[in-house]
Design goal:
Blueprint: H1 2-27, H2 40-50, H3 52-74, H4 78-87, H5 92-102
């Protein structure tokens, strides 16, 4: 029981630290003025052109987090689930798990 409380406290502290960092980063921006309004298509095109590496890193991170959740919560094999998640989509794992549950 003590380990469970310690994990919850550490998780909460890390969550607040992350939230604080994000709020600080947003607040220290100093504001910005939009001189040239762009459409959503232009913004997404710019992000995919110049920040594709961050998108891929975020995608793999989300896949591994979902695979870890399924390993801990539903006793699935982490390696198999993470490979399936990265090759298909992170949300396809939930459908695969649901289908296995019905069988």
């Amino acid at each position: 029981m003590k380990s469970n409380n310690t994990d919850k406290n550490l998780s909460g502290a890390l969550l607040f630290l992350t939230l604080g960092f994000i709020l600080y980063a947003i607040g220290s921006d100093g504001g910005f003025i939009v001189n040239d309004p762009k459409s959503l298509k232009d913004i997404l095109g710019y992000i995919f052109e110049f920040y594709l590496d961050f998108i891929i890193i975020g995608y793999v991170f989300i896949c591994l987090q979902i695979a870890g959740y399924l390993e801990l919560k539903h006793r699935q094999d982490y390696l198999t689930i993470s490979i399936v998640s990265i090759l298909f989509t992170p949300f396809s794992i939930f459908f695969i798990y649901k289908k296995q549950d019905d069988d």
